[in-house]
Amino acid sequence: MANKAKETESFPFSNWTVEVHRRAFRRSVSIYLYPQKPIKVVAGKLTTQKVIYEFLLSKKDWIEKHFNRFDEITEKFPERKIKSYQKFPFMGKDLALKMAITVLKKPFVAIQDEELRLHIPRNDWSADVLTDEHPELLAVIRDFYKREAIKIITERTDYWAERMGLFPRALKFREQKTRWGSCSSKGAINFNWRLVVFRPEIIDYVIIHELAHLKHMNHSQHFWSFVETHCQEYEILMKELRDSQYLCEFLTPQP
Are residues 90 and 196 in contact, defined by beta-carbon separation less than 8 angstroms? Predict the structure, then answer.
């Protein structure tokens, strides 16, 4: 069988490192930017480095603008490590993570005394566990957040559906980068379970927004007026959600 491994090369460009990923039959050159990672360029196998370099020069201002934005986001929303005393957002509150021993065989998370308790099986416990990071337990934390989110958002949707007289045909939960909810033409509503990191008023706003689409399947003035009758501060909450959308990034699985 032929070797289909993708070719990768790297070189410096300005203050950054560029990784070039070669693809057979690729004619165009594309750039992909990610926080705290090299610039990713995808190009054809026969595309010269000179062509790639000139393409990068033509996009230099655009690249710099985005990396500056990444730096601002990193400063405002620093990386959260899975270790004791690190704080994690839940329903608008910052809860300190604490480690605890459990006699059970699997780790689990629970909220106790305004803390996020990560229970670790006794056999996995070590003397210096309080100072250790536990990136492998992100899946356990994600399961907790998702489980709680489905419970909380479902309860709040039932509450607002009764008040608004609008009932979805189905309620589903997804994990998306920055989209918090959607309503289909068939009356099914999808929510991003990562909403659970935000304060209850924001969660309620998103629920009201999507339920309102059962009455107005658009963003017309009639739609926003209807939203306002149930959420007078919707503009403030919408802006807060947009400005703090990266608050849930710690729930993203690391490659």
Answer: yes
